[in-house]
Write a structure and sequence with these properties.
alpha+beta, globular, two-stranded antiparallel ribbon, 164 residues, Alpha-Beta Plaits
């Protein structure tokens, strides 16, 4: 498999958020591939959630030779480790979550993998840190830069740089 640039979003709002973010970066480097760059960590209220602790989120750029199936398997392993619960139609608090945002300029529509991430352009907590890292990256479906998508984002939920 060729080496691919993969952009991930990691985040969570339960437990020791700082330690969880560090631990997941180590997991990614060990299991996914080389970590090329990470964005600043941002803090925000839950997206389409109320009365939950604030979330920390960060964008992680990796280079990896993993296949799509291997990527999904690693994400399932991470979800299992953190006891991630999923619920159809509603968002839940979580210790840690990892979403694949982009894989280069690929467009993938598989049962367990949709790339670009179908909601990334609607989420300020994703776009803001992504733009701080790579404002010039092009969304392969919309043909717009991440910086342009931030400016057009319908999400009005404030995002702040996290300072522990």
């Amino acid at each position: 498999m060729a080496i691919r640039d993969i952009y991930l979003c990691i985040g969570g709002n339960l437990g020791d958020r700082d330690a969880n973010m560090e631990e997941v970066l180590t997991f990614i480097e060990f299991n996914f591939g080389d970590v090329i760059a990470v964005s600043p960590i941002v803090e925000s209220e839950g997206w389409k959630m109320t009365n939950v602790p604030p979330f920390l989120n960060q964008i992680v750029h990796i280079r990896s030779t993993l296949t799509n199936a291997e990527l999904i398997e690693e994400i399932h392993d991470l979800d299992d480790f953190y006891g991630r619960e999923k619920s159809e139609g509603q968002y839940l608090s979580r210790t840690m979550d990892l979403d694949i945002l982009l894989i280069g300029d690929e467009i993938i529509a598989e049962e367990e993998l949709n790339v670009p991430h179908r909601y990334m352009h609607e989420r300020r907590f994703v776009l803001d840190p992504f733009a701080r890292l790579y404002p010039e990256v092009i969304h392969p479906v919309f043909g717009k830069t991440i910086a342009e998508l931030v400016n057009e984002c319908p999400d009005t939920n404030p995002v702040a740089l996290y300072r522990p």
